[in-house]
Amino acid sequence: MSRSEELFLQAQKTIPGGVNSPVRAFKAVGGTPVFFERALGAYVWDADGKQYIDYVQSWGPMVLGHAHPEVINTVIETAKFGLSFGAPTERETTLAEKLCNLIPNMDMVRFVSSGTEATMSAIRLARAFTKRDKIIKFEGCYHGHSDSLLIKAGSGALTLGVPSSPGVPAVLADHTLTLDYNNAEQVRECFAKLGDQIACIIVEPVVGNMNCVPPVPGFLECLREVCDQYGSLLIFDEVMTGFRVAHKGAQGHYGVNADIITLGKVIGGGMPVGAFGGRRDIMQMIAPSGPVYQAGTLSGNPVAMAAGLKTLELLEQEGFYDKLCARTTELVEGLQRLADEAGIPFTTNHVGSMFGFFFTSEKKVTNFKQVMACDIPRFNAFFHGMLARGVYLAPASYEAGFMSGAHTEQDIQATLTIAAEVFATLK
Ligand code: PMP
């Protein structure tokens, strides 16, 4: 029995399903989850000492690669001064200023400790600002696990077949309208009927929770337009896309403005951080400057702020995003070529350093229905083939993959060599 198998058996006795976040359990792909022991740059090592090239990168935060020495050093030095104060610190303002300078349409920002808290608070704020209750989200988009947003959700909820979780009161679920991502016509129809009741649209500007699905031209623009027309707010959930698809996130990449932006993952450099921010007149409604309550014992945690600040500083290196994007393109184009050569129906998507691949005969995947129609058993066989040969991919076909600044040309080539072998086994 491998050490991971032993650890998984033991974990299941005291932790539901043996994991603290469902997708980690390998339910989608089968088999035993790999227990990690350490990570460095593009690599992770499991509890048996086996090394993998990692394309999950902690589900996005590690855009510099794991355990970047400068980030680790900052964390150690900051920790020596205390782990949490529950009082304001200068660092919070420094990180807030940095985000407001870098992220378009962000005048003010509030820090929280997870993406879930960021989106949950953003929704409450949008409801308070507009004095309306209904919200629109898109099927297959995941915005964390707060009640209003766990309706037809993506990621682990979709994988486990509980996109709308039991436990969410029906009266609350009734206020969440779920539409088809990339279907502008449907959005317009919905607003024509209910526009004056809709507080906000929340959207992953590039979806990373039903695999990777970018917006079709005009879709994000349509969302902006209807929100303006009907006095609703547009929330871009950039928890995944922020500092990932481009330095200025999806707003910068697509040139569409949101009213509220949620962030997480990269801005904490691997420490637990989330944030929501946006227009000053909206953000001023948050307590204590306004009446909309929101709080957190560990919010603005000094070590997390320091890790985030150092990470953002390192992302400013000249050409960082160009290189990251080029490596991602090289990987997905390489995979496409190998699949074509092997005669396996396959297509890919990527924006910046977020990518996805699909076992399907569709030329391009742009919506939820197409994602759901992909060949899951073939994905699972590919996943396990890669895993056995030392490449760690997201353990479910409904998840995006992530490149880091630490992945080298050799890592990409090694991955493609292994992929060629695995494709050959899938014929
Ligand atoms: N929004 C998006 C777009 C996400 O991808 C995630 C998590 N993957 C969340 C929100 C929730 O963030 P967290 O897991 O930190 O609560």
UniProtKB/TrEMBL annotation:
InterPro entries linked to this entry: 4pyrrol_synth_GluAld_NH2Trfase (IPR004639), Aminotrans_3 (IPR005814), Aminotrans_3_PPA_site (IPR049704), PyrdxlP-dep_Trfase (IPR015424), PyrdxlP-dep_Trfase_major (IPR015421), PyrdxlP-dep_Trfase_small (IPR015422)
Catalyzed chemical reaction(s): (S)-4-amino-5-oxopentanoate = 5-aminolevulinate
EC number in record: 5.4.3.8
Cofactor(s) listed in the protein's UniProt record: pyridoxal 5'-phosphate
Entry keyword set: Cytoplasm, Isomerase, Porphyrin biosynthesis, Pyridoxal phosphate
Organism domain of life: Bacteria
Protein name in UniProt: Glutamate-1-semialdehyde 2,1-aminomutase
Name of the gene this protein is made from: hemL
